[in-house]
Design brief:
- With 350 residues, the chain is mainly α.
- The protein is built from 15 helices and seven strands.
- It has four domains: 56 residues, no CATH class; 69 residues; 75 residues, no CATH class; 57 residues, no CATH class.
- The strands form three sheets. The protein has a three-stranded mixed sheet with strand order 1-4-5, with no helix packed on it.
- Strand 6 and strand 7 form a beta hairpin.
- It is elongated and about 125 Å long.
Length: 350
Protein backbone atom coordinates (compact mmCIF):
# COMPACT_ATOMS: atom_id res chain seq x y z
CA UNK A 1 0.00 0.00 0.00
CA UNK A 2 2.84 2.38 0.81
CA UNK A 3 4.44 1.66 -2.63
CA UNK A 4 1.16 2.40 -4.38
CA UNK A 5 0.76 5.67 -2.50
CA UNK A 6 4.34 6.74 -3.37
CA UNK A 7 3.70 6.02 -7.08
CA UNK A 8 0.48 8.01 -7.01
CA UNK A 9 2.28 10.93 -5.33
CA UNK A 10 5.06 10.86 -8.01
CA UNK A 11 2.55 10.90 -10.85
CA UNK A 12 0.70 13.75 -9.17
CA UNK A 13 3.93 15.74 -8.91
CA UNK A 14 4.71 15.15 -12.59
CA UNK A 15 1.21 16.29 -13.53
CA UNK A 16 1.57 19.47 -11.48
CA UNK A 17 5.06 20.28 -12.80
CA UNK A 18 4.02 19.98 -16.45
CA UNK A 19 0.67 21.68 -16.13
CA UNK A 20 2.45 25.04 -16.04
CA UNK A 21 4.21 24.23 -19.32
CA UNK A 22 0.99 23.23 -21.07
CA UNK A 23 -1.38 25.71 -19.53
CA UNK A 24 -2.08 27.30 -22.94
CA UNK A 25 -3.24 23.97 -24.41
CA UNK A 26 -6.50 22.13 -24.14
CA UNK A 27 -4.84 18.75 -24.77
CA UNK A 28 -4.93 16.44 -21.77
CA UNK A 29 -2.10 13.94 -21.15
CA UNK A 30 -2.02 10.89 -18.95
CA UNK A 31 0.52 10.91 -16.13
CA UNK A 32 2.66 8.39 -18.05
CA UNK A 33 2.69 10.57 -21.18
CA UNK A 34 3.56 13.64 -19.18
CA UNK A 35 6.39 11.82 -17.46
CA UNK A 36 7.76 10.65 -20.82
CA UNK A 37 7.54 14.19 -22.19
CA UNK A 38 9.41 15.56 -19.18
CA UNK A 39 12.14 12.97 -19.61
CA UNK A 40 12.54 13.90 -23.30
CA UNK A 41 12.82 17.59 -22.42
CA UNK A 42 15.38 16.76 -19.76
CA UNK A 43 17.44 14.73 -22.25
CA UNK A 44 17.31 17.52 -24.85
CA UNK A 45 18.31 20.19 -22.35
CA UNK A 46 21.15 18.00 -21.14
CA UNK A 47 22.39 17.65 -24.74
CA UNK A 48 21.97 21.39 -25.34
CA UNK A 49 24.02 22.11 -22.22
CA UNK A 50 26.81 19.84 -23.47
CA UNK A 51 27.12 21.70 -26.79
CA UNK A 52 26.63 25.15 -25.29
CA UNK A 53 23.02 25.88 -26.26
CA UNK A 54 20.34 27.34 -24.02
CA UNK A 55 17.69 24.89 -22.72
CA UNK A 56 14.20 24.60 -24.10
CA UNK A 57 11.64 26.78 -22.36
CA UNK A 58 8.02 25.82 -22.94
CA UNK A 59 6.50 28.02 -20.26
CA UNK A 60 3.93 30.49 -21.68
CA UNK A 61 4.70 29.32 -25.25
CA UNK A 62 1.55 29.60 -27.36
CA UNK A 63 0.39 26.89 -29.76
CA UNK A 64 1.07 29.00 -32.85
CA UNK A 65 4.51 30.01 -31.59
CA UNK A 66 5.79 26.47 -31.05
CA UNK A 67 6.48 25.75 -34.72
CA UNK A 68 8.58 28.89 -35.13
CA UNK A 69 10.33 28.28 -31.80
CA UNK A 70 11.15 24.72 -32.82
CA UNK A 71 12.65 25.78 -36.17
CA UNK A 72 14.65 28.54 -34.51
CA UNK A 73 16.00 26.20 -31.83
CA UNK A 74 16.89 23.58 -34.44
CA UNK A 75 18.74 26.20 -36.51
CA UNK A 76 20.76 27.33 -33.46
CA UNK A 77 21.67 23.77 -32.56
CA UNK A 78 22.71 23.14 -36.17
CA UNK A 79 24.91 26.22 -36.27
CA UNK A 80 26.50 25.42 -32.91
CA UNK A 81 27.27 21.81 -33.85
CA UNK A 82 28.54 22.87 -37.27
CA UNK A 83 30.89 25.43 -35.73
CA UNK A 84 32.34 22.87 -33.31
CA UNK A 85 32.85 20.30 -36.11
CA UNK A 86 34.59 22.92 -38.25
CA UNK A 87 36.90 23.81 -35.34
CA UNK A 88 37.78 20.19 -34.69
CA UNK A 89 38.34 19.26 -38.36
CA UNK A 90 39.76 22.67 -39.29
CA UNK A 91 37.59 22.85 -42.41
CA UNK A 92 34.80 25.07 -43.75
CA UNK A 93 31.56 23.19 -44.26
CA UNK A 94 29.14 24.41 -46.99
CA UNK A 95 26.01 26.26 -46.00
CA UNK A 96 22.90 24.12 -45.82
CA UNK A 97 19.97 25.41 -47.85
CA UNK A 98 16.61 25.71 -46.18
CA UNK A 99 13.53 23.99 -47.57
CA UNK A 100 12.44 27.02 -49.61
CA UNK A 101 15.87 27.43 -51.18
CA UNK A 102 16.07 23.72 -51.93
CA UNK A 103 12.66 23.84 -53.59
CA UNK A 104 13.64 26.83 -55.74
CA UNK A 105 16.91 25.18 -56.77
CA UNK A 106 15.13 21.91 -57.62
CA UNK A 107 12.55 23.72 -59.76
CA UNK A 108 15.32 25.66 -61.51
CA UNK A 109 17.20 22.45 -62.29
CA UNK A 110 14.01 20.82 -63.60
CA UNK A 111 13.36 23.83 -65.84
CA UNK A 112 16.91 23.68 -67.22
CA UNK A 113 16.42 19.99 -68.04
CA UNK A 114 13.12 20.76 -69.79
CA UNK A 115 14.78 23.52 -71.84
CA UNK A 116 17.58 21.13 -72.91
CA UNK A 117 15.03 18.49 -73.95
CA UNK A 118 13.10 21.05 -76.03
CA UNK A 119 16.34 22.26 -77.66
CA UNK A 120 17.26 18.72 -78.71
CA UNK A 121 13.78 18.08 -80.11
CA UNK A 122 13.72 21.37 -82.03
CA UNK A 123 17.00 20.65 -83.81
CA UNK A 124 15.70 17.61 -85.67
CA UNK A 125 12.07 18.31 -86.45
CA UNK A 126 9.93 20.17 -88.98
CA UNK A 127 9.00 23.84 -88.62
CA UNK A 128 5.39 22.85 -87.96
CA UNK A 129 6.47 20.63 -85.04
CA UNK A 130 8.83 23.36 -83.80
CA UNK A 131 5.98 25.85 -83.58
CA UNK A 132 3.89 23.32 -81.66
CA UNK A 133 6.69 22.68 -79.12
CA UNK A 134 7.38 26.40 -78.70
CA UNK A 135 3.91 26.76 -77.17
CA UNK A 136 5.56 25.32 -74.02
CA UNK A 137 7.72 28.40 -73.28
CA UNK A 138 4.92 30.56 -74.65
CA UNK A 139 2.65 29.14 -71.93
CA UNK A 140 5.17 30.40 -69.34
CA UNK A 141 4.62 33.92 -70.69
CA UNK A 142 8.24 34.23 -71.77
CA UNK A 143 9.00 37.24 -73.95
CA UNK A 144 9.55 36.77 -77.68
CA UNK A 145 13.19 37.77 -77.28
CA UNK A 146 13.80 35.28 -74.45
CA UNK A 147 12.31 32.37 -76.43
CA UNK A 148 14.25 33.36 -79.54
CA UNK A 149 17.60 33.60 -77.72
CA UNK A 150 17.08 30.54 -75.50
CA UNK A 151 16.19 28.15 -78.32
CA UNK A 152 18.05 29.91 -81.17
CA UNK A 153 14.89 29.98 -83.28
CA UNK A 154 13.58 32.45 -85.86
CA UNK A 155 11.40 35.37 -84.84
CA UNK A 156 8.72 34.12 -87.26
CA UNK A 157 8.42 30.76 -85.47
CA UNK A 158 8.25 32.44 -82.06
CA UNK A 159 5.46 34.79 -83.17
CA UNK A 160 3.54 31.87 -84.68
CA UNK A 161 3.92 29.83 -81.46
CA UNK A 162 2.76 32.68 -79.23
CA UNK A 163 -0.28 33.32 -81.41
CA UNK A 164 -1.05 29.59 -81.58
CA UNK A 165 -0.94 29.30 -77.77
CA UNK A 166 -3.13 32.38 -77.38
CA UNK A 167 -5.72 31.11 -79.88
CA UNK A 168 -5.71 27.34 -79.30
CA UNK A 169 -3.79 26.62 -76.10
CA UNK A 170 -0.94 24.40 -74.95
CA UNK A 171 0.74 22.12 -77.55
CA UNK A 172 -1.85 22.96 -80.20
CA UNK A 173 -0.97 21.82 -83.73
CA UNK A 174 -0.53 24.49 -86.42
CA UNK A 175 -2.86 24.19 -89.39
CA UNK A 176 -1.35 22.71 -92.53
CA UNK A 177 -0.75 25.08 -95.38
CA UNK A 178 -2.14 24.06 -98.78
CA UNK A 179 -0.43 26.75 -100.81
CA UNK A 180 -1.92 29.83 -102.42
CA UNK A 181 -5.40 29.36 -103.83
CA UNK A 182 -6.90 31.41 -106.64
CA UNK A 183 -10.33 32.82 -106.03
CA UNK A 184 -13.23 31.36 -108.07
CA UNK A 185 -13.69 34.76 -109.74
CA UNK A 186 -10.14 34.75 -111.14
CA UNK A 187 -10.49 31.15 -112.34
CA UNK A 188 -13.71 32.02 -114.14
CA UNK A 189 -12.10 35.13 -115.63
CA UNK A 190 -9.23 33.08 -117.07
CA UNK A 191 -11.59 30.54 -118.62
CA UNK A 192 -13.64 33.30 -120.23
CA UNK A 193 -10.47 34.92 -121.55
CA UNK A 194 -9.63 31.72 -123.46
CA UNK A 195 -13.03 31.92 -125.18
CA UNK A 196 -12.86 35.54 -126.30
CA UNK A 197 -13.13 35.92 -130.07
CA UNK A 198 -9.90 37.94 -130.03
CA UNK A 199 -8.06 34.95 -128.56
CA UNK A 200 -9.78 31.92 -130.15
CA UNK A 201 -12.15 30.96 -133.00
CA UNK A 202 -14.94 28.38 -133.12
CA UNK A 203 -14.04 25.53 -135.48
CA UNK A 204 -16.68 25.08 -138.22
CA UNK A 205 -16.66 21.27 -138.55
CA UNK A 206 -19.64 19.23 -137.36
CA UNK A 207 -17.28 16.85 -135.61
CA UNK A 208 -15.27 19.60 -133.95
CA UNK A 209 -16.90 19.07 -130.58
CA UNK A 210 -15.68 17.93 -127.17
CA UNK A 211 -17.67 15.90 -124.67
CA UNK A 212 -17.56 17.54 -121.24
CA UNK A 213 -20.19 15.43 -119.55
CA UNK A 214 -22.98 12.97 -120.14
CA UNK A 215 -24.62 14.11 -123.37
CA UNK A 216 -23.02 17.55 -122.97
CA UNK A 217 -20.84 18.82 -125.82
CA UNK A 218 -18.94 22.03 -126.51
CA UNK A 219 -17.73 23.28 -129.87
CA UNK A 220 -13.96 23.35 -130.18
CA UNK A 221 -12.25 26.72 -130.21
CA UNK A 222 -8.87 27.09 -131.87
CA UNK A 223 -6.51 29.30 -129.89
CA UNK A 224 -4.92 31.81 -132.26
CA UNK A 225 -1.48 31.82 -130.61
CA UNK A 226 0.63 29.69 -128.35
CA UNK A 227 0.03 29.58 -124.61
CA UNK A 228 2.98 31.82 -123.78
CA UNK A 229 1.66 34.59 -126.01
CA UNK A 230 -1.86 34.11 -124.71
CA UNK A 231 -0.58 34.42 -121.14
CA UNK A 232 1.23 37.65 -122.06
CA UNK A 233 -2.00 39.00 -123.54
CA UNK A 234 -3.82 38.15 -120.32
CA UNK A 235 -1.21 39.92 -118.18
CA UNK A 236 -1.47 43.00 -120.38
CA UNK A 237 -5.23 42.99 -119.94
CA UNK A 238 -5.10 42.30 -116.18
CA UNK A 239 -1.69 43.44 -114.90
CA UNK A 240 -2.72 43.44 -111.24
CA UNK A 241 -3.84 39.81 -111.12
CA UNK A 242 -1.21 37.44 -109.74
CA UNK A 243 -1.23 34.15 -111.63
CA UNK A 244 1.67 32.16 -113.04
CA UNK A 245 2.00 30.68 -116.51
CA UNK A 246 1.63 27.10 -115.30
CA UNK A 247 -1.61 27.85 -113.47
CA UNK A 248 -2.89 29.87 -116.41
CA UNK A 249 -2.26 26.94 -118.76
CA UNK A 250 -3.86 24.43 -116.39
CA UNK A 251 -7.11 26.44 -116.48
CA UNK A 252 -7.45 26.14 -120.26
CA UNK A 253 -10.94 24.76 -121.03
CA UNK A 254 -10.95 21.33 -122.59
CA UNK A 255 -12.61 22.60 -125.79
CA UNK A 256 -10.04 25.39 -126.34
CA UNK A 257 -7.45 23.57 -128.43
CA UNK A 258 -4.07 24.54 -129.79
CA UNK A 259 -2.76 24.05 -133.29
CA UNK A 260 -1.99 20.35 -133.73
CA UNK A 261 -3.56 16.92 -134.01
CA UNK A 262 -6.63 16.36 -131.85
CA UNK A 263 -6.17 19.76 -130.29
CA UNK A 264 -2.82 19.05 -128.61
CA UNK A 265 0.02 21.49 -128.80
CA UNK A 266 2.94 19.81 -130.57
CA UNK A 267 6.08 21.64 -129.57
CA UNK A 268 9.74 20.87 -129.12
CA UNK A 269 11.19 22.27 -125.91
CA UNK A 270 14.03 21.48 -123.52
CA UNK A 271 12.32 19.71 -120.64
CA UNK A 272 15.12 20.62 -118.22
CA UNK A 273 14.81 24.36 -118.81
CA UNK A 274 11.04 24.40 -119.04
CA UNK A 275 10.59 22.35 -115.88
CA UNK A 276 12.68 24.87 -113.94
CA UNK A 277 10.27 27.57 -115.10
CA UNK A 278 7.31 25.44 -114.05
CA UNK A 279 8.88 24.87 -110.63
CA UNK A 280 9.25 28.63 -110.17
CA UNK A 281 5.60 29.13 -111.01
CA UNK A 282 4.55 26.24 -108.76
CA UNK A 283 6.46 27.79 -105.83
CA UNK A 284 4.34 30.89 -106.21
CA UNK A 285 7.26 33.26 -106.84
CA UNK A 286 6.33 36.69 -108.11
CA UNK A 287 9.70 36.84 -109.87
CA UNK A 288 10.05 35.41 -113.38
CA UNK A 289 12.87 33.04 -114.24
CA UNK A 290 14.81 35.79 -116.02
CA UNK A 291 14.95 37.76 -112.78
CA UNK A 292 16.36 34.73 -110.97
CA UNK A 293 18.98 34.27 -113.68
CA UNK A 294 20.38 37.69 -112.82
CA UNK A 295 21.59 36.21 -109.52
CA UNK A 296 24.01 33.83 -111.26
CA UNK A 297 25.00 35.51 -114.56
CA UNK A 298 26.16 38.95 -115.63
CA UNK A 299 23.67 41.61 -116.68
CA UNK A 300 23.02 41.24 -120.41
CA UNK A 301 24.59 37.78 -120.25
CA UNK A 302 26.08 36.37 -123.42
CA UNK A 303 27.19 32.98 -124.62
CA UNK A 304 30.20 32.78 -122.27
CA UNK A 305 28.02 33.53 -119.27
CA UNK A 306 25.42 30.93 -120.22
CA UNK A 307 28.11 28.29 -120.70
CA UNK A 308 29.59 29.23 -117.30
CA UNK A 309 32.89 30.29 -118.88
CA UNK A 310 32.69 33.86 -117.58
CA UNK A 311 34.84 34.65 -114.53
CA UNK A 312 32.83 37.78 -113.72
CA UNK A 313 29.49 36.04 -113.23
CA UNK A 314 28.18 35.98 -109.63
CA UNK A 315 28.45 32.72 -107.73
CA UNK A 316 25.41 30.56 -107.09
CA UNK A 317 25.54 31.62 -103.42
CA UNK A 318 23.47 34.69 -104.30
CA UNK A 319 20.67 32.54 -105.68
CA UNK A 320 20.91 30.13 -102.74
CA UNK A 321 20.51 32.99 -100.26
CA UNK A 322 17.54 34.34 -102.22
CA UNK A 323 15.81 30.94 -102.21
CA UNK A 324 16.51 30.38 -98.51
CA UNK A 325 14.93 33.74 -97.71
CA UNK A 326 11.91 32.84 -99.86
CA UNK A 327 11.40 29.49 -98.13
CA UNK A 328 12.14 30.71 -94.59
CA UNK A 329 8.47 30.85 -93.70
CA UNK A 330 7.66 27.52 -95.36
CA UNK A 331 7.43 24.18 -93.63
CA UNK A 332 8.73 20.82 -94.87
CA UNK A 333 5.15 19.55 -94.85
CA UNK A 334 3.71 22.38 -96.96
CA UNK A 335 1.98 21.20 -100.15
CA UNK A 336 3.28 22.59 -103.45
CA UNK A 337 1.63 21.72 -106.75
CA UNK A 338 3.39 22.20 -110.07
CA UNK A 339 3.29 20.90 -113.65
CA UNK A 340 6.05 19.15 -115.60
CA UNK A 341 6.82 18.62 -119.23
CA UNK A 342 7.20 14.92 -120.01
CA UNK A 343 8.55 13.22 -123.11
CA UNK A 344 6.46 10.72 -125.06
CA UNK A 345 7.34 8.41 -127.93
CA UNK A 346 5.73 10.50 -130.70
CA UNK A 347 5.41 13.99 -129.30
CA UNK A 348 5.86 16.19 -126.27
CA UNK A 349 2.51 17.24 -124.86
CA UNK A 350 1.55 19.90 -122.35
Amino acid sequence: NKLLKIKQIDESNVQNSLNTEDEDHDVEFTPAELLQKRNVIAELNSSFHEIGCSPMKLHALGEHSRSFYGKEKLQRVHETVKEKIQNVLEVDLPEEKNDVEKSVIKKSEDLDKLVDIIKNELSGTSRRKQIQMLTIPASLMWSRRKIKETFNISDYSVRKAQKLFKDQGFLAEPARRNGKQLSPDIIELVKKFYQLDEQSRILPGMKDVVSIGKKVYEKKRLILCNLGELYSNFKLEYPNLKIGLSKFCSLRPKWCVLAGASGTHLVCVCTIHQNVILLIHGAGFEEEYKQLMSYIVCEGAGRECMLRHCDKCPSKDNLVQFLQAKFEDCDDEDIVEYNQWVSTVFDRSW
